[in-house]
Amino acid sequence: MFAELLQYMLSGLTIGAIYALAGLGFSIIYNASHVINFAQGEFIMIGGMASATLTASGVPLPLAILIGCGGAMLVGVLVAKFAVERARNASTVTLIIITIGASIFLRGVAELVWGKDFKRLDAFSGETPIQLMGASMQPQSLWVVGCAAVLIVAIGLFFNRTLTGKAMLATSHNRLAAQLVGIDVKRVVLASFALSAALGAIGGAVVAPITFSYTEMGIMLGLKGFTAAVLGGLGHGPGAVAGGLIVGVAEALGAGYLSSAYKDAVAFVIILAVLLFMPNGLFGKRGTERV
Amino acid sequence: MLLEIDGLNSHYGRIHALKSASLTVREGELVALVGANGAGKTTLLRTLSGVHPASSGMIRFDGCDITRMRASRRVAEGVVQVPEGRQLFGPQSVEDNLRLGAFRRGSGRPAEDLERLYALFPMLKVKRDQPAGTLSGGQQQIVALARALMAKPRLLLLDEPSMGLAPLLVAEIFDAVQRLKREGTTILLVEQNAHAALAIADRGYVIETGEIVLSDSGAALLSNERVRQAYLGL
After folding, report:
1. Of A105, B36, B148, B176, which is the most buried if we count CB atoms within 10 A?
2. Which pLDDT tens digit goes with each residue over B109-145?
3. What CATH fold (topology level) applies to the domain A2-114+138-277?
4. Shortest CA distance to B215 belongs to which of B14, B35, B28, B3?
5. Which pLDDT score is estimated for A201?
6. B115: distance to nearest CA of chain A, Å?
7. Which residues in chain A are contacts of B134 at CB distance < 8 A?
8. Nearest to A45 by CA among A116, A122, A142, A126
9. pLDDT of A288 higher than 50
10. Kind plus residue range of the DSSP H or E element containing B32
11. For residue B112, what are the CA distances in angstroms to B88, B99, B108, B140, B150?
């Protein structure tokens, strides 16, 4: 009974950590540019595919992850520069459609480069399950949760402790004032895409041994990440992390106790409920600022 | 001549907001630009800071043409604006707001300047860890001013610093402006409060529906019949 619950919680937290990273990516880009970037899932896919195919051709794992990460960052900057920046004055819906277009394009290119089949990446430190109070856990889960935790803490420190991070936050709070203190807001937008792409790609690489990699892996992961970001309050970093973990655990519980057929439905029920009953999310701002 | 504006035009869509405006500011001067609501004062400052494009004309700062320079570079050159309505980074702390003011200065010595500003405005030190958005209007205006000073401005652009403040606070803000001038800061002050602005200005310009219609010394404008009728209500 308890072991079963623990089992679901562990697998929920593992996948939730990836949703958290994706959700954080949505929030970072949204803050910098008010764009909801539906190509976020493709950053995850690039990370997963690059590390799987590169290691298969003999590149050491850390280098493969690094290359995937760099590639995703480059793609992120290109998307920002050539798809988003060009449409600076377009409406939100137009921008969303542009990022959806970019995501379809990226999937298409990935299919040309890597083909349609599933790619396998060996677990980083073996496959012997770890036994924990009756539940068993893949060692890779520890990698996923550990990497996500390190990245989330690093992002938190970056935004709250460094001047560059504070400048990026400041741009989200007041774009005009940011320009007037000399922050180059265009570069902030590019940096936000690069940062989100890096988060996604590393997430994709560490989760690849569990989920396998394929060119369409980003669709669901991206949508779950979006759910996480909206649940936490779009633009709220810690909220996105909490949202990701909640979505992951809810999904695992739903799959375990109801039916695994409902696994994906859980996230979408959550997003509908959030949009209907609390559109600001769990931690979103409620517009109580003094002017 | 520190700032030379020559035949500057600016549009909002089809609205011609600034019509061939010309204006100069010398090193160390306090120049006031007065005019009614919607006359084009804020547009002039936005165009000067590069957050709104000039349609034609020329802005020269310290001999260099900056008409097409991007906003962030102008700040690095020393053209720093305190925008209308404060425009603080509300959720971030007062101290973060100030540090961000020095964003373009890179490694300089922001810590020293921070201490200097804390000595100048002790309120800033008391409130330094509070979110800037929770301060009162007058306190926010001081944060906005201090944030601009952190950039080490060579030309300080002030947009309606007295707007929405109680008379006592208005006096305090104008005191601070005068003190900055005495310390040698060059200032272009934009105000609807024409009397207070012209009283402390070396020279003044009057702007009406996007055109600069009068320019003279501050004192002369204060006693100008047309200014007295239109702006001072005398």
Report:
1. B148
2. 778 889 999 998 999 999 999 999 999 999 999 999 9
3. ABC transporter involved in vitamin B12 uptake, BtuC (1.10.3470)
4. B35
5. 97
6. 18
7. 290
8. A116
9. no
10. strand B30-34
11. 22, 11, 9, 22, 10
| pTM summary value | 0.91
Q: Contacts of residue A166 in chain B, CB cutoff 8 Å? A: 92, 96, 99-100
Residues B179-197, mean pLDDT to the nearest whole number = 93
What's the average model confidence in pLDDT over A69-91? 93
Q: In a 3-state reduction of DSSP, which class is residue B85?
A: coil
Condensed to tens digits (0 to 9), the pLDDT of residues B148-166 reads 999 999 999 999 998 888 8
Inter-chain contacts counted by CB atoms under 8 A, chains A and B: 75
Chain B residues within an 8 Å CB radius of A174: 87-90
Is the CB of A125 inside 8 Å of chain B's CB atoms?
no
Of A32-46, A135-149, B98-112, B181-195, the one with minimum mean pLDDT is B98-112
**Residue B223 Cα, gap to closest chain A Cα (Å):** 35
- Averaged confidence pLDDT in chain B: 93
Phi, psi values for residue A276, rounded to 5°: -80, -45
Sequence-distant (≥ 6) Cβ neighbours of residue A17 within 8 angstroms:
A144, A145, A147, A148, A149, A203, A244, A245, A248
How far is A14 from A71, CA to CA, in rounded Å? 25
Q: Which residue has tokens 């959720």? A: B91
Map tokens 């990370």 to a residue.
Answer: A47
Q: Which of A171, A179, A180 to mutate to test the interface with B (most CBs of B within 10 A)?
A: A180
**Cβ(A278)–Cβ(A234) under 8 Å?**
no
State the pLDDT confidence band at A95, using cuts at 50, 70 and 90: very high
Cα–Cα nearest to A246, from A279, A278, A224 = A224
Q: What is the ipTM of this complex?
A: 0.93
| Contact partners, residue B93, CB within 8 Å, separation at least 6 | B128, B129, B130, B131, B132
The CB density around residue B175, as the number of other CB atoms within 10 Å, is: 11
Q: By the CB < 8 Å criterion, does A276 face chain B?
A: no
B51, B91, B96 member nearest A180 (Cβ): B51
Q: Does A162 touch chain B (CB under 8 A)?
A: no
State how far the Cα of B9 lies from the Cα of A189, in Å rounded to an integer.
30
Confidence class for position A219, pLDDT limits 50, 70, 90: very high
Q: What is the pLDDT of residues A228-256, one digit of tens each?
A: 999 999 999 999 999 999 999 999 999 99
Question: Is A183 an 8 Å CB contact of chain B?
Answer: yes
A185: nearest CA in chain B?
Answer: B72
- Mean pLDDT to the nearest integer, A16-33: 96
Q: What is the pLDDT of residue A50?
A: 97
Measured between CB atoms, does B85 come within 8 Å of chain A? yes
The verdict on a CB contact (< 8 Å) between A166 and B92 is yes
